[in-house]
Structure formats: structure tokens, C-alpha cells
Amino acid sequence: VPVYRWAWPLEVGPAEILIDAICSGSVDAVTFTTRQAAVHLVEIADYRGRRDELLAALDGVRVVPVSVGPVCSSAMTNLGMAGIVEPKRARMVAMVDALCAEANRRSTRR
Asked: How far apart are CA 96 and CA 73, in angstroms?
């Protein structure tokens, strides 16, 4: 008897809205707190025929993919994401700090 499994959300509309935002560049970064969240987002994009477009946008330049830790980052890299921001410690607060540091670094370059 499986007690825990990862499955697509019952309603994929919010994921499709996120995919639209990523592909259009209307978001600067996307955070992933589990490897399965990254896998499902790419699977949903693939199902909608937008996998390549999504991964092209998640290049660390147009849209920054942000990971909670090394397990998640490894999956994101295997999926084709680039320029992944990852905190030194695999913790939510550290991920937010890493995202803020990256945003600050980018804003001072402009």
C-alpha cells in the first residue's frame, strides 16, 4: 500500500499560468522546493507542447531557476535548466536569502 506518492495537481491551470509567465519573461525567478515540483512543471509544459520554450526561458538569464538544495538542483540540471541559484544550506530561509542576493547582484549590474 503506497503511503506517499507524487502526482500532478488535480488542477493544472495554475501551473499553465506559471509556464506562460516564465515563457513570456514576466517573472524574474522561479523557486523550486522539491525535485518533483521541477519535474511536474516540465512534464506539464511538455504535455502542452511548450517544454523547449520553458527550458529556454529557465536559462538563468531571462528567468532564474532557484533551488532549495542539491537534490532539487540535480533534477533541475537533468531536466535542462541552467544558471540555477542554490543556497549553501538546503533550507527554505537560505533559498530565499540566495534569491535575494542574486536579485541584488543583478540590480547593481544594471
From this structure: 15
This model's pTM is above 0.70: yes
CATH code for position 42: 3.40.50.10090
Q: What would the pLDDT profile of 93-102 be if each residue is shown by its tens digit?
A: 999 999 999 9
Cell of 27: 517573472
Contact 32, 68 (CB under 8 A): yes
CA distance 23 to 37: 17
Cross-strand bridge partners of residue 85: 66
Angle at the Cα of 14 from the Cα atoms of 13 and 20, rounded to 5 degrees:
90
Which residue range(s) make up the domain with 38?
A: 13-109
The rounded distance, in Å, linking the Cα atoms of 86 and 70 is: 7
